[in-house]
Amino acid sequence: MSDNSDWVQIKLRTTNQAADTIADLLEQFGALAVSYTDAEDSPILEPRPGERRLWPNTEVTGLLDKGTDPTPILNTLKALLGDHIPMMVTHLEDKNWIRAWMDQFKPLKFGKHLWICPSWLKVEEENSVVVMLDPGLAFGTGTHPTTALCLGYLDSLDLKNVDILDYGCGSGILAIAALKLGAKSATGVDIDEQALIASKENAQRNKVEDKLKLVMGTNKKLDLPKFPVTVANILAGPLAQLEPIIAELTQSGGKLALSGILTEQADEVNEAYSKDFVMNKVQDKEGWALLTGTRK
Predict the structure, then answer these.
(1) Could you read off the pLDDT of 105-133 as tens digits, one per residue?
(2) Which CATH number characterizes residue 223's domain?
(3) Residue 59 lies in a domain
(4) Cα separation, 36 vs 11, whole angstroms
């Protein structure tokens, strides 16, 4: 049962090739927001930087204002797209969506001391090390297994007065966590300007901006010192290609942690880094791998 206080959703099941066209049509017909979801539980690999991938069978949903009559829109969509594309209308009861969204998130613990916590919550545990990071910010908030593996690794190290390199820093979560765990300084490198902006804002939120240096990455050697600890949570392909640069930036005897790697890709990346690092046994979590080692 619905009334004029309900939001209206129109859902269409289509292919990844047609999804953007349908999304454009829904926006032309007044959709306040359009989202894409997997229609058939078809996993896809994480995209490379700057790339966007959709599922072979994609469900496109347009959210329409409360009280909208969807019938004319459905009739027009059928006339334009044909009757072969499945379409349905659902209704959403009006409620405080911001509060409902916020209620989904809780503080997350990594290792013995480290917590990632949304800014509207508190961690009550004694001797906790807390990184304030809100969901919705770009490039990771600790919920993905690869980030969790890296955070647990950092918590296991003695970082007091250590300089750390976060290569592919994204939101800055690893660099900021290292600083909160006692690192003297952190350098974040990324090829995406938005990542550097997010890292700076998150560092300011956590009051460590004076200890974080941010650098725009390139495919060439960077003018940086050698680091005693290097972490890189990117993707398997780029990690393998970056081995000479990461090796050059890690001092002899320095610690290394790599993630963003599917478990079945671990051997390939391990082999690439074995040239310059003594690699440890692979750790895995939910199909993702953490590679660690020591610079020769």
Answers:
(1) 788 888 898 998 888 888 989 889 998 88
(2) 3.40.50.150
(3) yes
(4) 10
User: pTM of the predicted model, to two decimals?
Assistant: 0.68
CA distance linking residue 248 with residue 291, whole number of Å: 18
- 274 neighbors 280 (Cβ within 8 angstroms): no
Q: Judge contact between 169 and 234, C-beta under 8 A.
A: no
Give pLDDT tens digits for 144-182: 888 889 999 999 999 999 999 999 998 899 999 999 999
CA angle 88, 78, 84 (to 5 degrees): 75
Residues 6+ apart with CB under 8 A from 136: none
- Quick one: CA dihedral 78, 82, 84, 85, positive or negative? negative
Residues 260 and 290 in one domain: yes
- CB–CB of 32/10 below 8 Å? no
Among 72, 94, 116, residue at a domain's last position? 94
Shared-domain flag, residues 54 and 197: no
Coil, strand or helix at 75 = helix
Residues 64 and 126 in one domain: no
